[in-house]
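Duplicate of #3305? Posting structure anyway:
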């Protein structure tokens, strides 16, 4: 018989079923939040993986379209590779949990989350985050949990917890906070320029709610939790550290790592590695763990010098930003380009504009969102860090960095009505030594302005780091961390925003959480740095968006038509609209509400297409003068085309003021003539006259 646990969470019932399914996993729970159902499991290998110096944790979030009553699109009616949303959810589950496993644990651990049913008012992502934490907590896998996660929205300036679909739509904030029993361990946010103080308040409102969920999880663990298994420790022998310090003194290690040139530092460490390998050539046991031991030696050296002596590897002050530079228009013929450089981190972002029809279509579990008009993609080639490896497409890190920059810039983009374009920005990493994701925010903001996208405000991003001591009060927050400080430090706290407020946050840490004092200092430190970047670099490179899109970007004309006339513009099987496109070369998109978007490179072609559509949807009235092309000649008159699919007739008696016997005596096929509308005949058809057009009239 399975065990069932329930609690009320943000006005809905959270139910956890233990020992109902997945009993062969180390830990498994069937999660129910409202009608959202997720199976979360935690499984570990019996023995450590050999030959590795890291904890092999794998997190999966498997979306099944049956959960929202859909069959996958395309030829293969089966779910394919993970969606972008699934990848981002895996990352947000991973980040708060990874630090809570033992640092010397080398057994493979997999956290699987299977989405089986989705209630749009109860987030499956949140349900999976809670499920992964509970499954691991009740398992026999060593884990210093539990953790809890809460989502926060801001509707009418009021916080809402685990918001419904309607509340998310109206919210100015999308915040996810994970906590342990004592501290905040993960923050992820997108916001419409939310002030720093309000963001801090939201974070700790979520932290307080997390404590109630953690108490609920502890009840489940107390009743169903397994005893944690012992494991083979992979810690480095103290004797090895002592022997290393005899050969390479702390002063020598400090000299090797404290340089602002990444390549020089790597060469120095390579020399130290060769020296130690030669010294320990006869000790295979030590050689097997020497790489990890050198890493630990570097880490202790860097952390000691930063925390105790306030000395950074490149000689900067604790709150000093590396040298900055901005540049626009470095790539010809693209719609917009900009490059942002911060120390040895360099990003170039290219902006591409297209008609709204090229917006990305989404086929996921969120039924409220079927497409997105702004796309940010981030690329991280191996040459940017001086390495060589084959390119296999974007990994989870690249997708995550792209999504973070996209989230940071979304709040300042113009609406579709203001700027009817699909927009894609691509950030190419030229060089990397710390926080390329935030450099891509800066480069993308300038690139959008250079492309003529009327963004509301420039957005900058910066990252803060952390080095902690033995107590909560013993810490140092660093501004603009480089790769080494990220690698050996305890935190990468990324914040993007405008002068007005925050637009995105992402926090990665390697310790068991942050105190409120650290969170507040990190947010205020990044505010100061962000303001400096905006004022001293970005605004001096390009202060405001260009008034028009570039020469090579498509131009777009908008016009509104009666929705009931859409069928006339489109024509049978698209015949009419395709003919307009073929004649003018313009691209035409029409919404169900009758909004028409005409795009092209040449304005004259777009105006011609607009003229044709106007003629098609116009109800001709008596006295209206226009031009038509003769497309058919009959004994009784001629048929004229005024626009694709829009025709009218001129009776033989209305062709000339002189009496004529044959229409062909006056008109020829293909001839363009002026006509005046006479109104409707007895059968309701519109008729025209050539002879009644005054010579001074000009066609409308």
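Output from current build:
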């Amino acid at each position: 018989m399975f065990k069932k646990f329930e609690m009320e969470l943000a006005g809905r019932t959270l139910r956890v079923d233990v020992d109902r399914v997945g009993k062969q996993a180390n830990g498994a729970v069937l999660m129910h939040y409202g009608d959202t159902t997720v199976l979360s499991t935690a499984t570990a290998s019996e023995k450590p993986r050999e030959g590795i110096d890291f904890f092999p944790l794998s997190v999966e979030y498997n979306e099944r379209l049956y959960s929202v009553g859909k069959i996958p699109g395309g030829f293969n009616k089966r779910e394919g590779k993970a969606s972008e949303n699934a990848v981002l959810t895996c990352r947000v589950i991973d980040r708060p949990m990874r630090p809570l496993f033992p640092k010397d644990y080398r057994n493979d651990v997999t956290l699987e989350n299977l989405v089986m049913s989705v209630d749009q008012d109860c987030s499956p992502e949140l349900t999976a985050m809670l499920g992964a934490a509970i499954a691991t907590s009740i398992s026999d896998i060593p884990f210093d949990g539990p953790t809890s996660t809460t989502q926060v929205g801001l509707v009418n300036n009021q916080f809402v917890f685990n918001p419904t679909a309607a509340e998310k739509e109206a919210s100015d904030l999308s915040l996810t906070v994970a906590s342990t029993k004592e501290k905040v361990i993960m923050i992820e946010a997108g916001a419409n320029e939310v002030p720093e103080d309000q963001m801090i308040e939201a974070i700790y409102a979520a932290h307080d709610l997390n404590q109630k969920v953690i108490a609920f999880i502890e009840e489940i663990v107390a009743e169903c939790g397994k005893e944690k298994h012992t494991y083979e420790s992979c810690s480095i022998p103290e004797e090895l550290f002592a022997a290393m310090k005899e050969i390479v003194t702390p002063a020598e290690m400090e000299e090797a790592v404290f340089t602002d040139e990444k390549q020089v530092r790597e060469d120095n460490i390579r020399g130290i590695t060769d020296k130690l390998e030669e010294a320990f050539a006869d000790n295979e046991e030590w050689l097997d763990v020497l790489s990890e031991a050198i890493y630990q030696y570097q880490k202790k050296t860097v952390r000691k010098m930063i925390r105790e002596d306030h000395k950074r590897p490149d000689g900067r002050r604790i709150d000093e930003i590396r040298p900055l530079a901005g540049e626009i228009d470095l790539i010809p013929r693209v719609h917009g380009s900009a490059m942002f450089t911060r120390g040895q981190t360099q990003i170039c972002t290219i902006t591409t504009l297209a008609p709204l029809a090229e917006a990305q279509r989404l086929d996921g579990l969120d039924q409220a969102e079927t497409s997105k008009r702004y796309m940010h993609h981030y690329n991280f080639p191996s040459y940017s860090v001086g390495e060589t490896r084959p390119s296999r497409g974007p990994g989870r890190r690249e997708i995550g960095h792209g999504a973070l920059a996209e989230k940071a810039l979304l709040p300042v983009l113009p609406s579709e009505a203001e700027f009817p374009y699909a927009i894609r920005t691509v950030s190419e990493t030229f060089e990397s030594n710390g926080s390329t994701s935030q450099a891509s925010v800066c480069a993308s903001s300038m690139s959008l302005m250079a492309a003529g996208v009327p963004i509301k405000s420039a957005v900058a991003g910066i990252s803060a780091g952390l080095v902690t001591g033995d107590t909560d009060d013993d810490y140092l927050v660093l501004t603009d961390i480089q790769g080494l400080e990220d690698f050996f430090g305890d935190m990468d706290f990324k914040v993007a925003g405008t002068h007005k407020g925050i637009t995105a946050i992402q926090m990665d840490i390697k310790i068991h959480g942050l105190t409120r004092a650290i969170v507040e200092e990190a947010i205020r430190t990044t505010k100061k740095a962000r303001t400096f970047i905006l004022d001293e670099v970005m605004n001096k490179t390009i202060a405001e968006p260009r008034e028009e899109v570039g020469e090579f970007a498509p131009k777009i004309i908008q016009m509104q038509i009666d929705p009931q006339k859409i069928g006339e513009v489109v024509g049978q099987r698209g015949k009419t609209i395709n003919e307009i496109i073929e004649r003018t070369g313009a691209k035409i998109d029409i919404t169900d509400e009758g909004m028409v978007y005409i795009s092209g490179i040449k304005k004259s072609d777009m105006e011609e297409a607009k003229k044709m559509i106007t003629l098609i949807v116009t109800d001709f009235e008596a006295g209206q003068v226009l031009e038509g092309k003769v497309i058919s000649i009959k004994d009784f008159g001629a048929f004229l085309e005024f626009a694709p699919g829009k025709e009218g007739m001129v009776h033989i008696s209305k062709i000339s003021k002189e009496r004529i016997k044959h229409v062909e005596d006056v008109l020829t096929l293909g001839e363009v003539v002026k006509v005046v509308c006479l109104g409707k005949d007895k059968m309701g058809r519109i008729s025209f006259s050539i002879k009644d057009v005054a010579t001074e009239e000009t066609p409308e």
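Confirmed duplicate; merging threads. The two ends are 81 Å apart (CA to CA). The CA atoms of residues 400 and 533 lie 23 Å apart.
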